[in-house]
Amino acid sequence: MDFPRVAVIIPFKGSSPYLQSCLDSILGLDYPNFEAIAVDDGLGQEAKKKLTGYKDKVKVLNSFNKGPSFARNLAAGSTDAEFLAFTDSDCLVDKNWLRELLRGFEEYPGAVACGGVQKLSSEASEFEEKVFRFMKKAGFIIDYMRRAKDEYIIEVDHNASCNVMYRKEPFLKEKGFAKDFWPGEDVELDYRLKKNKMSIIFNPRAIVYHYKPKDSASFVKMMHRYGKAQGVLVRRYGPFRKVQVVGLLGLAFLFLGSFKAVFMLLFLVLATCVSLIYLRDFSLFKLLVLTGLAWELGFITGIISNKTN
């Protein structure tokens, strides 16, 4: 049986509290032909010491704090693997993760990328569960946490970089992730691939367990960053995602002078309806309002500045 060579690439930054759990899950993968590449993208001293303990099992590179896009591209250029699998430092991978991603390529041999589903860690806090539920319900708009209705492999427009595999040749031909882009670098790359008529697929059996923000302040900050990235994408390429159209509608209302108060009222009414009817949890109302406004503010900032960092 043929087992293509795969490079599993993870950039680490700051304190990286899940560094050991992440790497242990990768080293426990049920796949015979892969190498793990950890990129030090500005680790703190304690995290550096932990990473050193893996030097005999994991290839360690240093991107000198140039950002996750640069770090991932650096690792992609350092391997002879045929496939590049990416996950994040706050993720744990299922033991069959690589096998399932590769199964996508077997069923769709013309595909250049295959992604998978995100699930919540069994150690998640109550707030993380709330964030996970919120983001999963919003998946039909944001296209970040796709809701797998069945076990079929399907063609999609985008997969999140915390759970995705690319064929190395087209990845390098497209020059990988845009180095000036984060977050949203995965959306930007997939947009270019789709524009060039390349196929992207999704296998719900390819699973990573993703930790989420621990409190409202962290989640709001994250959503502001996401909104800003989407604003930059719209400025560069025009709208091509549902969530970007939502951002543009919000932008239009906000700049219609006397309609600002109407916009806020409509937003609050919509948030209430979504919380009660769609999310079926009014406790998510505050989260929905705060993150919605933070995302929209970020979107406007991205439109104006054209910079994600």
Give a written overview of the molecule.
The longest helix is centred in the C-terminal third of the chain and has 22 residues. The protein has 309 residues and is an alpha/beta fold. β1, α1 and β2 form a beta-alpha-beta unit. The chain is globular. The chain is 47% helix and 19% strand. The chain folds into two domains: 191 residues, Spore Coat Polysaccharide Biosynthesis Protein SpsA, Chain A, CATH 3.90.550; 90 residues, no CATH class. The chain has twelve helices and nine strands. α10 packs across α12. About 2% of the residues have low confidence. Strands 1, 2, 3, 4, 5, 6, 7, 8 and 9 form a nine-stranded mixed sheet that branches.
CATH architecture of the largest domain: Alpha-Beta Complex
Class by helix and strand content?
alpha/beta
Determine the mean pLDDT: 85
For the record, what is the CATH homologous superfamily label of the largest domain? Spore Coat Polysaccharide Biosynthesis Protein SpsA, Chain A
CATH topology of the largest domain: Spore Coat Polysaccharide Biosynthesis Protein SpsA, Chain A
Taken as a percent bin, the fraction of beta residues is 15-25%
Overall geometry comes to globular
Q: What is the straight-line distance between the termini?
A: 45 Å
Largest sheet: 9 strands, mixed
Q: SSE order in H/E notation?
A: EHEHEHEEHEHHEEHHEHHHH
Q: Into which percent range does the helicity of residues fall?
A: 40-55%
Count of individual domains: 2
Number of strands: 9
Backbone CA Rg: 19 Å
Uncertain ranges: 274-279
Q: In the CATH hierarchy, what is the class of the largest domain?
A: Alpha Beta
